[in-house]
Amino acid sequence: MPDATRPHRLIPFVLAACTGVSILSTDLVAPSIPDLPKIFATDAQTAQMVVGINLLAYALAHLVHGPISEVLGRRLLLLSAFGLFALASIAAMFAGSIEALLAMRFVQGLFSSVPSVVVILIIRELYGRAGSVRVLALYGFAIGAAPALGPLIGSYLHVWFGWRAGFLLCAVLALTVSLWVAWLVPETLSAKRTVRPAGVVGDYRRLLTRGRYLRPALGGSLAFGAYFAYISSAPLIFRDVFDLPVQRFGLSTLLIVGAFMVGSLASARAAAAVPAERMLGLSALLLIFSVSLLTVPLALGPPRIEMMMIAMTLYGIALAGVLATAPIIVLDAAPDLPQGQASALLGALQLGAGAAAGLISGAFYDETVVSMVLTISAFAVSGALLLLLPHIRVRATA
Fold it and tell me: Residue 231 sits in a domain of what CATH number?
């Protein structure tokens, strides 16, 4: 196994695959939902829970995995999680009732969320500050591609092999990735700790009251959450407002994901020359510009899909820059506290912001673009302003 002082060149790709598999598992089963009521003699609302209950477990488990990684170490937790995730996937494949399937989807979510906590820590501890920005930018490819590929792969698996095939693929991918982790990825935690529940709660309380941590963590999370307002409302908008088939929505997500990947590549190339704080500030400014292109046309006339897609494409590029730099700045703001808790809280804030944006946009949907546009703008602009606050203060004092 490679020495931690000289990371193997394939490690970034292995770590990206870890997160890619975990994200892929959240929506790979989505194309099977319309057939689940007939298969399990249940209603459509219960069948739809196979995605929601997985995301719920995914979000809640973040706060637990951080402290556990301080006790077990990053590598052991990652390997254990993939093994248990594979077992849960196989159990889901043989579920005989919708209740059993939902239970296994919850268990899947508990373990599939480990990479989103642990991988960031491994990158930060393995590559240092400057190197981490470059690796996180490349790592953004997995974060961007997996949500778009999941439904696409899942639809073909469902048509060709049935609803169980997606769970089998999850198990196979998890075991394959765990073998690569066991071979290439070293343990990066310098010293394991004894963690007490009261101490963990105290760590989270200190993080939430530390402005240097909370500001970029919350700012980046709000910027990230804005995308879920689009995901929750755009399929209906394509049908009700623009009179387009829902398949066009799938193509639009590919466009945004492509923009995200371009932004990730640009961030990786700029990491060696541009400080993380400056890159984050520039990304925040681009966020504000992108949502201005989304909101201003509302006051000028009927909404145009071309302008909406231009705005969301620029948003994708800006978001890539935020997600490549904000995690490093966030973790650097808490060097005296366990990094496991710092990373876990960041992940929980991101998922919480995404859930809130999606719920708000959906709750106020009125067959127009208004609720989606205003939710995206509110989340993205408030997040960008939080990220820009240190730059504004520096100029004010100068």
Answer: 1.20.1250.20
- Nearest CA to 207 out of 334, 116, 323, 325 is that of 334
pTM of the predicted model as reported, rounded to 2 decimal places: 0.72
| CA–CA distance, 350 with 330 (Å, rounded to integer) | 13
Final residue in a domain of this structure, among 117, 150, 184: 184
Same domain, 112 and 260: no
Q: Do 108 and 56 share a structural domain?
A: yes
Q: Are residues 250 and 382 in the same domain?
A: yes
- Residue 167 token pair: 């769970």
Are both 283 and 391 inside the same structural domain? yes
| Together in a domain, 166 and 212 | no
Burial-class residue 375 by CB neighbours within 10 Å (0-12, 13-18, 19+): buried
- The string of pLDDT tens digits covering residues 205-261 is 999 899 899 999 999 999 988 887 887 677 678 778 888 765 566 677 778 878 887
Report how far residue 50's alpha carbon sits from residue 170's, in angstroms, rounded to the nearest whole number. Answer: 15
Of 178, 217, 206, the C-alpha closest to 353 is 217
What is the number of structural domains in the chain?
A: 2
Give the integer Cα–Cα distance in Å for 49 and 313. 30
When mean pLDDT is compared over 72-76, 269-273, 289-293, the highest value belongs to: 289-293
The b-or-e profile of 381-396 (16+ CB within 10 A means b, else e) is bbbbebbbbbbeeeee
Domain of residue 28, residue span = 11-184
pLDDT value of position 376: 94
